UniProtKB/TrEMBL annotation:
Compositional bias ranges of the Low complexity kind: 1-13
Name of the protein this chain belongs to: PglZ domain protein
Species annotation: Haliangium ochraceum (strain DSM 14365 / JCM 11303 / SMP-2)
Residues covered by region (Disordered): 1-24
A Pfam family reported for this protein in Swiss-Prot or TrEMBL: PglZ
Length: 1016
């Protein structure tokens, strides 16, 4: 939690509450005693009867003083009773008799000097000790807690090490320290300002920053930082803050002697750098090796906490400054970088090298198939909480890929290597409970690979090797389960019991729904069971109320698992459980149903409409539903018992090789169509499929096996099955007579690979295949949704409000930022049902050919499954990127992509830069050409260079001429490392004057300023 985001009433680090000071004065207590009494008071309030064990008797005088004070909830009084053992157990027990006899625990403090948790067991007070709560605190701990952030840690350590230390002496010492010193009015100001507010002043050049030219005030500032943050003199000097001072002087003396050398940004850098170092040591699981970090672990806990809060505040509020400071500090800790191991590092990536080490370790864990260990690394980094991941597209992609690979590995391990099923029912349950999750994770990994894997990903070769390993692991698992299921089918038959057969689904499920009310039947080509689990989750998330029931069941598709079989078998075409197929040249053409043949969407609609009755049975494609509004749809379905919605999107995308890019869009389209038909008045829905599919690597099979399996002539087989008149058995195949599959009128045989391998058809290998007997192809979903109330119950309208119009958020490392919130805009009638969350999407309003990528979000929103879910009434900060085939600046807006809410889109009036997709890929893959650099070098000096100060002008001229300027070159051109730090702080201001873009990146630990495309 940042220092500026504290709960109301909480103190900022180092800030003393004036009420505490006045209470201490009224009670007549010194500063250490007052802090101890405050802690005691809170302890007694929480626990009631409190027993204070004081083995050394350090606190006797304090307790005697407290015991003399009246007990009452008034100023200058105690709101709890104090009793003490002073030589007579009997006398104390007599005093306590009336105080402890009530029903409720009393607010009572009992002081027992000379006793510890062992010796008290032999005293008459042991029962009292067991009944109460024990309070114990050593004297040096009490002194440290009271003095932390008020005096220098070194002085505090020296005091606590004194052999004659007493509470009275500590009170006197601390009183003298906090009442003396230098700095006058500034010292009082610093006592009441948090570290985050102080560094904000320094970075903006306001407040405290305006008083640093006064030697006394500058000295007071350094003294305050030493006390509040433990900032050491040697660290401050090593950062360049006050470089002209004598090397043996402490920071305060140095500033007093050389006040004119003190710069606010240098002090801010020293603060930030030190806070990062302290946070790093606190998160480290071993002692630091760098001499620069010696003694950091011994800092008081309050000081270490303050440093951690300051570092977190900088990550959130001053991200660019944080990263620049961290990179420079990391350079000074080269011995830590060399010694670092992933297992030594904690959960906070203070420095860039930590994230590098963790990524390397996560990849190694994946290669070793230690998925649980990889998951430990992923949990923090893939969630975009690391500053090095959140704002770096390449690192973000690497962690997303590692996370997806880890999830697949864990799912495979959880599912088990064997199907372990004795019959069809058990096989279906095993796949739905264990196997489908594996296939879901596999599809998500392949989608992520398609979208994210590229040369810009750190450790590209290693990440790609990991993904290849997981592909092979999935294929081995899928082949093993396919072998097991094939063996089960050979033993028990390829058809399960009737209740699990696809051919009975219409009469068993759809007809029953249609008799109860108008039902929408979605026939979705190639909707796998695992995809339906995602669709079910979306329905529950949108309308998961008691008035809606959602049920997901599964059945086995008919064989072969092709559209011509499965889609037509979903119509009521069976007679006494048997099907009569129409087959020509080894290809299914449909099924006979009474007097006509069911072979396409229209004949399926006729058969279904005839079975359920009703004056009409509309047939709509998914695209037709999405193109119409609820009023138009309501008119079309008004007289129907059954509405058939036909969707080919998943299968067509897979067949055309675009499935990995289109599967999620297809699922979103199904969800939106459900919402539209729900608004049109339909309350019953059934989603099902003709078959599933296998998502294969077209390169090779498992264990180095060939990508395709031979079956005679290449023109004989389809991709995953063969229909033959010859009852021949082939190696690596299984065979079933069509009669055994429940088909009449045919003496043909169906043959399938025993594993997931496709047949070699002589055509180009594909990653999307179906037709076989694997569980991925045969298990189809039956998702039923029943609403018991009408849609449109809410009359609320919402709007998007951009909340950073007056003070727009700047970009962070090429990532755009905006702050917005969803508000209730109005209502047409009384409504108490405001939504808790509204789904949003980001799009470019102008130009339209720009795509938006969500990076991260904080505040009142979250990203889940690629969707942005915003809490109504709460602000959120969205980080995003824009890319497209243009260099123009784009207008963006947030809108609602579905139909579940009426929301007015909104966006900022300002435009955002667009990264040209082609140029960005070239920049990631190719260095600047020598010819281009030479041409730029010959360009005449432009007027914009004249607007830059000396030193900065030379750096930008170098960038213009050569395309890149590395850190060492910049230091030489600017005239020193200190000037580089100032250049970095003002970089965005200078870069805005250049006619080209400049990005900052780090390669091999070396910072580079890289020229990008010309601005328009």
């Amino acid at each position: 939690m940042s220092a500026d985001a504290r709960a109301p009433g909480a103190r900022a680090p180092g800030v003393r509450d004036s009420d505490d000071a006045s209470r201490a004065q009224r009670l007549g207590l010194g500063p250490v005693s007052a802090a101890l009494e405050r802690d005691l008071r809170q302890f007694v309030r929480r626990h009631g009867l409190s027993v204070w064990l004081d083995p050394a008797g350090h606190y006797t005088e304090l307790v005697d003083h407290l015991a003399q004070l009246p007990s009452a909830p008034e100023p200058g009084h105690l709101d709890y009773e104090v009793r003490a053992f002073r030589g007579s157990y009997l006398a104390l027990m007599h005093e306590l008799a009336n105080l402890t006899s009530g029903v409720h625990p009393p607010r009572l403090l009992v002081h027992l000097p000379g006793l510890n948790d062992r010796s008290i067991r032999t005293t008459p007070l042991y029962e009292l000790y067991k009944a109460g709560k024990c309070y114990s605190k050593s004297l040096d701990t009490a002194v440290s807690e009271a003095a932390a952030q008020r005096v220098a840690p070194g002085d505090l350590a020296a005091l606590c090490a004194r052999a004659d230390l007493s509470l009275a002496a500590a009170d006197a010492w601390l009183s003298e320290r906090v009442s003396g010193g230098v700095g006058g009015g500034l010292r009082a100001t610093l006592e009441n300002i948090s570290a985050s507010a102080l560094i904000g002043d320094l970075l903006r050049g306001e407040g405290v920053a305006t008083r640093l030219r006064d030697p006394g005030d500058a000295a007071a500032l350094w003294a305050h930082l030493e006390a509040a943050l433990g900032l050491r003199a040697d660290w401050a000097r090593s950062t360049g803050a006050g470089e002209a001072a004598d090397a043996d002087a402490d920071p305060g003396a140095q500033v007093g002697a050389q006040a004119d050398t003190v710069r606010a940004e240098d002090v801010a850098f020293a603060m930030a750098s030190w806070a990062q170092a302290v946070e790093y040591v606190g998160d480290l699981r071993r002692p630091p090796v760098s001499p620069l970090l010696a003694g950091v672990s011994a800092l008081p806990a309050a000081v270490r906490t303050a440093c951690g809060e300051l570092a977190e505040h900088l990550r959130q509020a001053h991200a660019d400054f944080y990263r620049r400071t961290a990179d420079e500090t990391e350079d000074r800790l080269a011995d830590e970088v060399a010694a670092a191991r992933a297992e030594d590092l904690g959960r906070i990536d203070t420095f860039r090298f930590e994230e590098d080490k963790i990524l390397e370790a996560a990849i190694a864990a994946l290669r070793a198939r230690e998925f649980d260990r990889a998951s430990e690394y992923v949990q923090v980094r893939a969630g975009l909480r690391s500053p090095w991941v959140a704002l770096d597209a390449g690192r973000r992609a690497a962690w997303q890929l590692v996370a997806a690979a880890t999830a697949l590995g864990q799912a495979i391990a959880d599912a088990g290597a064997k199907l372990a099923a004795n019959d069809h029912d058990a096989a279906l349950a095993a796949y739905c409970e264990r196997g489908a999750k594996v296939d879901s994770r596999h599809r998500e990994l392949e989608q992520a690979r398609f979208k994210l894997l590229g040369p810009q990903v750190p450790r590209f070769d290693a990440v790609r090797a990991c993904l290849d390993d997981l592909r092979a692991a999935w294929r081995a698992w899928a082949d093993a389960w396919a072998e097991d299921f094939t063996a089960l089918c050979e033993r028990d038959g390829f058809l399960p019991r009737a209740e699990l057969q696809q051919r009975h689904l219409f009469d068993d499920v759809v007809r029953a729904h249609a008799q109860a009310g108008t039902t929408a039947l979605f026939l979705v080509d190639a909707l796998r069971y695992e995809m339906a689990t995602a669709l079910r989750a979306a329905v529950v998330n949108i309308d998961g109320t008691a008035a809606t029931s959602v049920r997901l069941d599964a059945r086995f598709a008919e064989l072969p698992t092709v559209t011509e079989v499965g889609m037509n078998a979903l119509a009521p075409v069976s007679e006494r459980g048997r099907l009569t197929p129409k087959i020509a040249n080894g290809t299914f053409q449909g099924f006979s149903a009474g007097e006509f043949q069911v072979k396409d969407p229209e004949t399926r609609r006729r058969a279904m409409g005839a079975r359920v009755g009703g004056s009409t049975c509309p047939l709509l494609s998914l695209s037709e539903v999405l193109a119409r509004d609820a009023r138009s749809l309501k008119h079309s379905v008004a007289q129907a018992r059954l509405v058939v919605v036909h969707s080919l999107e998943i299968d067509q995308a897979g067949e055309h090789g675009t499935g990995l890019a289109a599967f999620e869009d297809a699922l979103h389209a199904l969800r939106n169509a459900w919402q539209l038909l729900r608004d049109a008045g339909i309350k019953r829905f059934v989603f099902t499929a003709d078959h599933g599919f296998l998502l294969l690597d077209s390169g090779a099979g498992s264990g180095g096996a060939p990508a395709a399996q031979a079956h005679g002539r290449k023109i004989d087989p389809k991709r995953r099955h063969v229909i033959s008149s010859v009852a021949a058995d082939h190696s690596g195949e299984t065979r079933a007579p069509l009669s055994a599959l429940g088909y009449d009128g045919s003496e043909l045989h169906a043959m399938f690979p025993r594993t997931c391998a496709p047949f070699d058809t002589g055509a180009r290998a594909r990653d999307f295949v179906h037709g076989g007997n694997s569980l991925q192809e045969r298990v189809i979903p039956v998702l039923s949704v029943v609403h018991r109330s009408d849609a449109g119950g809410t009359t609320l309208r919402y709007r998007v409000e951009v909340t950073d119009r007056d003070k727009p958020l700047g970009d962070l490392g090429g990532v755009h930022r905006l702050r917005a919130g969803v508000r209730v805009a109005g209502q047409s009638a009384l409504d108490f049902g405001a939504a808790g969350e509204i789904e949003l999407a980001l799009r470019a309003r102008e130009p339209a050919d720009v795509s938006a990528e969500l990076v991260s979000v904080s505040g009142g929103a979250r990203i889940e499954g690629g969707r942005l879910l915003a809490k109504v009434g709460e602000d959120f900060e969205l980080h995003f990127r824009l890319s497209g085939n243009t260099e123009a600046r784009a207008l963006v807006e947030l809108h609602h992509p579905g139909r579940s809410a009426e929301l007015e889109p909104g966006g900022p009036a300002r435009r955002f830069s667009v990264t040209p997709a082609v140029k960005q890929r070239q920049a990631d893959a190719e260095p600047t050409s020598a010819a281009a650099a030479s041409e730029a070098a010959r360009a005449p000096a432009a007027s914009w260079l004249a607007q830059l100060p000396a030193g900065v002008r030379e750096v930008f001229a170098h960038i213009e001429a050569h395309g890149v300027c590395v850190e060492n070159e910049a230091i030489a051109l600017l005239g020193g490392a200190r000037k580089l730090r100032r250049f970095s702080a003002e970089f965005e201001k200078h870069a805005a004057l250049a006619p080209f873009g400049v990005r900052i990146d780090t390669v091999g630990g070396i910072k580079r300023y890289v020229k990008e495309g010309t601005r328009t």
